[in-house]
Amino acid sequence: MSASPLAARGRGNVVGMAEYRDWFDSDGRLVKEAQMRQRVFEAGTDPSCRRSLWKFLFGIYPMTSTHREQKTIDIENRAHYQALRRRWVVLDATITLPDDDLVHAPPYMELSDGDEDKEDSNRSPLAPESRLSSDSASGGTPSGNPGTDCEGSGCVPALKPKGLSNGLRPDRLGSFDTENRDRTCSAPCPSPTTKTSRGVPECPCDFRKKSYDDVLDEEGRALLQILEFPAKVHATRQAVDLEKSYPKAKRIILRDVLRTDRNFHYFSHKRNLRKVHRILMVYAMFHPEMGYAQGMNDLLARFLVVTDSEVDSYWMFVRYMERKMPDFLEQSMMKKVALVKSLIHEVDEALFDFFERSECKDYLFCHRWLLLDFKREFDLEDSLRMFEVLGTHYLELTSDKALLETDKAIAKEFELDGGEARPGRAFVNLEFTFDLFVCVAILTMHSKDICKATDAASVYGCLNNLSMNMNLNKILTQAEELFYKYCKLTITKGFCEISI
Predict the structure, then answer these.
(1) Is 90 exceeded by the pLDDT of residue 479?
(2) What Rg, from alpha-carbon coordinates, does the chain have?
(3) How much is the average pLDDT of 143-160?
(4) Percent of the residues in the chain that have a pLDDT greater than 90, as a whole number
(5) What backbone phi and psi angles, to 5 degrees, belong to 338?
(6) Interatomic CA distance for residues 34 and 14, integer angstroms
(7) How far is residue 194 CA from its own chain's centroid?
(8) Hey, how many other C-beta atoms are within 10 angstroms of the C-beta on 457?
């Protein structure tokens, strides 16, 4: 087996709207799931289709859901989040924090719900956007338009449904929906050169977008009204901890929100910081077993930047945390860090020996990488791509791709042995997830510089200097090659263990 199929294949071009549309059938089902996971893993997605894709990738839409089912899911999520948020407002008012430094509200809390729309009122709204037509020759995307019939809600590309118009939105849900009345762009900013008076980079595509995120036709409004009562009942039945978990979480959230990616234009707007605040507060209140831990704001920020929707970001975050929660527990994270050590021992013994001799054999420098999914190691666009690459779960040791490569390795070793011996049972550590291979890829690619370090401080200094200075494609390519190398090693060991 060659080191990696990637060597001949390359990473390819990013997934654009035309290719994205091809993954769905006429009813909106994502029928080419395997192809989707492979292509997103290999090349990432263009911002024009990222928001829609993430709703499938991060668990809001089932892959087999139809347009109609996706619309129903959106309305259900909206009703449930609205009910949770309203209950949070009532219960939060009963919590008093004793800290003197929290007597005054943080700056982003100065706006009331009704004032959020006035924050940037000097900017003129965008004219109604053109939509994709069914006879688009290339399936491409008009400038500034993500190319979906309901790009605000992130549903899959299709013909524009009847009953929706590009005019003013007829329905409002009071202050709850002010978050979507005026929206900054969700596409990452490509390192702009101009700056605002506050010294914050100006987004070249900073405009207000009309969208269908909060537009409902008559059927949708009727369904939302039907769902409001059961959603309210569901919210009142959720367990809360107003004695310990929530007050502690509230204290940390109020501070952490101010630190959320303030160098990015999107979070220079107070209304967007308030979205971060509300989502984290609601999550902490209704998930008392987890509450809040530092770093969650960094993970949530990615969802908000891509979706620019409080509702979608909340539910993506909830689904994501169902898988990510163990990483915020000390024992689980220390076990994961130890797995990095074990994996290095498998694929690079020289580097392993160096760390064993150094004062860094606890591998704690990997903690931030694993906790935040490498968010602070790359610029915004690359960190979003890394996030969706990890979200595909395409290359895990339990995936079909890993099983296929293992079978190839068995066949190759069997052929080299003349077909006279079968391998013993190969031990594959299924806890070696792809993010661990990314960690090891970073370390092995920079092993020469790391091994020049003479003490722990210089090792950490070397690794800290890598932040924002790494090539994402090279890192992912190295991680994939290490993955295939590990698959091959497990089979080779199996043959070596045969007792004749």
Answers:
(1) yes
(2) 25
(3) 40
(4) 58
(5) -65, -30
(6) 16
(7) 28
(8) 11
Residue 410 has pLDDT above 70, yes or no: no
Structure tokens given for 68: 């109609």
CA distance 378 to 385: 10
Distance CA 390, CA 484 (A): 17
Which tokens belong to 177? 């929906």
Bridge partners of 125, per DSSP, are 208
Tell me the whole-structure pTM to 2 decimals.
0.78
Residue with tokens 């004062």: 359
Distance (Å) of CA 287 to CA 3, 76, 244, 273, 301: 44, 19, 13, 21, 19
End-to-end CA distance of the chain: 25
Kindly report the number of other CB atoms within 10 A of residue 446's CB atom.
Answer: 17
Long-range pairs for 4-8: beta carbons < 8 A, 24 or more residues apart = 4/477, 4/480, 4/481, 4/483, 4/484, 4/485, 5/484, 6/42, 6/477, 6/480, 6/481, 7/481
Q: How does 332-348 read in b/e, with b if 16+ C-beta sit within 10 Å?
A: ebeebbebbbebbebbb
Contacts of 167-173 with CB under 8 Å at 24 or more apart are: 167/128, 169/214, 169/215, 170/215, 171/214, 171/215, 171/216, 171/221, 172/214, 173/82, 173/214
pLDDT for 192 beyond 90: no
SS3 for 11? coil
State the DSSP string of 400-428. HHHHHHHHHHHHHHHHHTTT-----PPP-
Spatial contact of 4 and 481, defined as CB atoms under 8 Å apart: yes
State phi, psi for 11 to the nearest 5 degrees: -90, -20
The pLDDT value given to residue 413: 58
